[in-house]
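Re-running the complex after MR caught last week's input typo. The corrected sequence lines follow. Everything else is unchanged.
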Amino acid sequence: MSGQARTTLHASSKAAVLDVIRAAGTISRVGLINATGFTGATISTVVRRLIDEGLVLETGRAESTGGKRRVLLQLNHASRYAIGVHLDHAGITYVLTNLGGAVVARITRQGAGTEEPARVVTRMAAEVRALVDRVGVEPDRVLGVGLVTPGPLRASGMALTPPSMRKWEDYPLDRALAEETGLPVLLDNDATAAALGEHWSGGVGGTSTSAALYMGTGIGAGLVIGGITYRGTSGNAGEVGHTCVDALGPECWCGARGCVEALAGPAAVVAAARADQALARMVGLTGTKRARPSVAADFAAVSRAARRGEPQALAILERSARYIAVAARNLANTMDLDVLVLTGPSFAVAGSVYLPIVRDELDRGFFARAAHQVDVRLSRSAATAPAIGGAAMVLQSELVPLHEGMRLPENLSAAEPAFLTQPSA
Amino acid sequence: MSGQARTTLHASSKAAVLDVIRAAGTISRVGLINATGFTGATISTVVRRLIDEGLVLETGRAESTGGKRRVLLQLNHASRYAIGVHLDHAGITYVLTNLGGAVVARITRQGAGTEEPARVVTRMAAEVRALVDRVGVEPDRVLGVGLVTPGPLRASGMALTPPSMRKWEDYPLDRALAEETGLPVLLDNDATAAALGEHWSGGVGGTSTSAALYMGTGIGAGLVIGGITYRGTSGNAGEVGHTCVDALGPECWCGARGCVEALAGPAAVVAAARADQALARMVGLTGTKRARPSVAADFAAVSRAARRGEPQALAILERSARYIAVAARNLANTMDLDVLVLTGPSFAVAGSVYLPIVRDELDRGFFARAAHQVDVRLSRSAATAPAIGGAAMVLQSELVPLHEGMRLPENLSAAEPAFLTQPSA
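Corrected-run output:
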């Protein structure tokens, strides 16, 4: 077998073994043989290398099962760290995770707002340093930064930005952040990162075909096929916020007509609430009370009112939910999904209104319902899933070293985030 | 490496080598080394086995390039054959292909119509035998039958059939055909098979993320990711005919509302033509002239009139095309497609009307257009792509022996058609 093929096999077996150890918590070499189907020889070679690299520890022995008690292995959680940064107009969320993907620190700071991109990036680099210092992690144990933004993306930076982030169009934010932090930066879109975050936090994935339907300020979906993030031709798969649910509907900022984001996204919900002056006053929309209007803050205010049972607020959210349920059905019929997780900041505040309506639409309208149902869930970490997914991107790129070229369709490769930027040496 | 891992590697390398030989036509062992990245040792082992199995032939030598002239290899096209059967209400298309996927015989017979499924299956088995006899292929060289029907599917047979094929719901047609022919039967839906047919005939695939948008009597899509057919959780991915492009639109036979098939599929086109009595007379719709109405025949008649420039016929098709273009944009935005091929019997007769409208919609409305365009094409084998794809399913199951379990997401496995039925021994 050629060197290339050998490293490929090695990369995939190393990644498989690490992922089994991560998922198992603690496991013996025999357990790894059973879980991976590799021989004892392969497992002992791979495990030895992982121990040498400091990624895996031997920790005590399992209870005797008659024979010799087995040495247990676990990830050396403190051996590597990753940073996830979720940049949005309303806020910037930072997480620091260990090698196991557990969040060891999390901070949320002021969003991009109307600030100049260069100033925001300088602030982000400082906030990243502060996060690492606060936890006392040695900088050389930080693998890199997973930077998560609204899509669509292109190398390098955002393209066709939403109105609230127009200044960022064509700004090379990943390169700029790599320069300011001195760390490799992986860039991906919020919905894809959220799906990866759900997968790592056990929400979706495994062998299923699952999607994370993401709603922050915008709407998108992250697709996970058999545990692998599907990114499409240019890293922009899952842009369901710009799928049409009304061919004669209003024009969207993206230039198309009848997009579900334009009809039913947070901005549309807030606009509908603002049009009802009594409701706008009652829930205290920004712009009516405070200076700078914020879609995220206003959507949260409408959601709180709906959860209190305010009929007008509830009616506005339920109308939004019916459109989003249709987009969810379209996604399920296109991908033949078996799991759909609702995640992202907006579902974190309004998920209880959306979940039953999306569930009902899929129970009644999913095309292959005679073959199986779609399991629709609300995420347990809806607000932080994108940042956690950003960190998970970095960890995956360690668990599966970049450019080892596993024999998978290239746009399915777990090793390849949408875009990678190395700081210049 | 474990036995399992070794057969896995072998299955994937054998499949990779065969597919490279198939695509190349003729190639030397050195050419295979360069194309696959395998070592000379691996290539010579795999090639020897393929020659022993009679799948590959040595055919003469390449022109000297200075050194020793190289032995050329090619598929032994006549060593194996596969049958593809495309069952639809309007007609049944049969193709016999050799190992290279070349069509050596093709017949079209009367469709399922209103006949009893059991009688139709008996007729299909006889027509399959007649096809094989006519070409004079030894029956033991026929690998099996790829049976292609409208979706959705479940093991065994169709589920939630379109109105015209209601009798087939829950009828175990693949098992019945396996019994009647004594051949293994692979069952898959028309759109997925069409995509595979396009891939084998060079229309889509390679490393791209491509889709075949299929329009026969119904509408669906087949998805090919990096050359591998994506089938979803239950083999029912790509059901875009039942994605919604008008949330308040008419109810579809599938039970949902605003499906593009209900708004703009061939049946809707024919209904619109029928409502215009002058047009109905002029194009000679069935039911007005002949006894049994046929959506396929009537859609073809309206399409001929539109191609002749009849304004009413053209207006009806263009309205249909605008809706289908929206569904195509939704699919492209969800999958981040780089290639979309229009295929199937209805695009075979009306593609010239639909192509420019779908192209225009994607040029203007594809969300990631800042990153790349979507290449929209009209199939060169739109009428027979599903049957060719059915045969290709059988060939793939030979090129990649079933259940060797390549390390791919299971619902992406090229080795696994939607459903396999063996005749009882």
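None of the earlier attempt is carried over here. Chain A has a mean pLDDT of 84. The CA atoms of residues 333 and 368 of chain A lie 7 Å apart.
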